[in-house]
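pasting input
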Amino acid sequence: MSTAPATIDGPLLTADGVPLKESLQKSLRRSRLRAVLLVAPPLLFLIFVFVIPIGNMLTRSVDDNLINDVLPQTFEVFESWDKKSEPSEAMFEAFYNDLKAAERTDIGKASVRMNYALPGWRSLIKITARKIKRMNPPYKEAFVAADDRWLEMDYWKSLGIMKDRFTLGYYWNAIDRTYDFDKNVIMQDEERRVYNLLWWRTIKVSIIVTLACLLLAYPVAYLLATLPMRIANLLMICVLMPFWTSLLVRIVAWMIMLQQNGVVNDTLVAAGILSDENRLAMMYNFNGTIIVMTQILLPFMILPIYSVMKTIPPSYMKAAQNLGATPTLAFIRVYMPQTIPGIGAGCILVFIVAIGYYITPELVGGKDGRLIGNMVAYHMQRSLNWGLAAAMGTILLILILLMYWVYDKIIGIDNMKMG
Amino acid sequence: MALPIYTTPGQRLWHYTYLTFCGFVLFFLVAPLVAVIPLSFTSTPFLNFTPEMLALDPDAFSIRWYKALFGICSAVDDSASTMCHNKWMTGAGRSLYYAVISTVLATFLGTLAALGLSNEHMPAKRAIMALMISPLIVPLIITAAGMAFFFARVNLSNTDAGIILAYTILGMPFVVITVTSTLVGFDRSLMRAGANLGGTPAYNFFKIQMPLIAPGMISGALFAFITAFDEIVIILFIGGPDQHTLPRQMWSGIRQEISPTILSAATILVLFSVLLLTTLELLRRRSERIRGITPH
């Protein structure tokens, strides 16, 4: 007991003589290290298989390296050209040297890229490359002999669009704009404008689907939240069953319902509401996309609203009515404001999922139900204009991440619940 | 929802309108799936209800499309009996193979991440959590496009390994979410008590923590499994002809040779989803019971 005052003067020690502060810090460090080591493998896996591939694809949207690697001399000579006088022999010679030096497959890829700048390049390059081996100086005559389009100034001028290794051209293309030969942004030709229409349609469909889901989900969520547990659980199965059923199965199911000889039309005809000739077209058009997407995304709206409603004590409504509010007023002024977090979560979730939809519009949308996701797939798989696909994907991704960020700010991703 | 006796006729009318509306919405959710089931027993090669079927004529029903689905070819049309290879069954096998392996990987990796992220000393927790969940948020078409380019470069396109990696990425966020939420109620002093009683960290994990987070792991695994089993976008972009899964068979079934076989497949999948749903509900109840949380 007599030594006690001496120990209080010095730092507080643990049983093994290390200062307590140090010992605590050490255990904290160890705990943090353990957490980092646990997270590291899944995080690295995610970065390598998910983040890097997507980042990589996004760089394609601004990447014009290939063409610059294939035609380095041409672009060098091009810099000194005044774009008014006729192309000089030096320019033709540079082009000849570049074509001769490049790999055959690279020339093919480059010519596809050049075709986006000015349609016609591809065939011009193809014809010229075929005869390149037998060409002799002067190259201007040789080129013109191969194809007299080489005298047209437009082809030469269009090189100006491609001479930088970094391009925003694909982004402009994705919103129906393009570069003129002086790299000014202009509107695309009337008949080639499709993307703005598709962007608006995608946003329109997403908004309509979100609102339709909200309208249908809110009353049902309220019913589920206020019914006794036993019945609510039973009805919950109706909500969760479609959620758990294969997407393609649901689409097939809707085809049966909505097609020309489908259940809905048959029922309406049998009930005498429709005549046999006037069957409704509910499939392979805009309506089809809306109906099917609403049904598919409805559980995403019901579940968050339900889980918020579940936490609201029923006594609030009773108190409001006790204070003289009518049931309607109590519902609007007391109950509804408390459900706003659920509404927000559901709306953002449905909107995010809807805006990137691809399979459903592809199968039931027909021609006027296609969305931007379908265009990305088209350019990936059919037209092989990967730069444009990447640019559209990037715009889509930015839109979604923006909303994801808002969602995180309002609700917090940690609060995301499933099932 | 019995109404109190003092309600006015107006309120009564409103109440029944409301119930009817809810009934309509639930009907809208379930009706298409239910309609598939009787139609899958049609005896015609068409996808609509015939008058005979509505009259419940036994001859209008048959199991021929189920036989076709399971590859019992002789029982189908004689004309079709020469085409005996069955893409439905091999497709289901493929899907099962990818789904099982990717689910195991996703559950393992997702649980690791959830354990690390629920540690209070973990740095940059919010950002990492957001990143781990991002495969759920990024549209599949973008994920698929990115992977298609990347896998082509590292020779993983048209391989089983590539598809399993992709599906693991898709399944992982579900496991992270479900396991994190079971860890919320986890009492850390239990682990300290275990250590105090002489248990090694590994022993304590398997004996104390694992049984408590198991329901979260299993429900996360179920989400991962169903996602992989049902995946169609990525397989269309990175799968070759050898990677012909069940959804791909359904995709080509819808787009080209639409026959009631697809309905019999759909019926089985609907029943499958009911089974999964029941499992999940039982798990949820179990989780609540062992964590001592009673449903309110």
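fyi Chain B has a mean pLDDT of 85.
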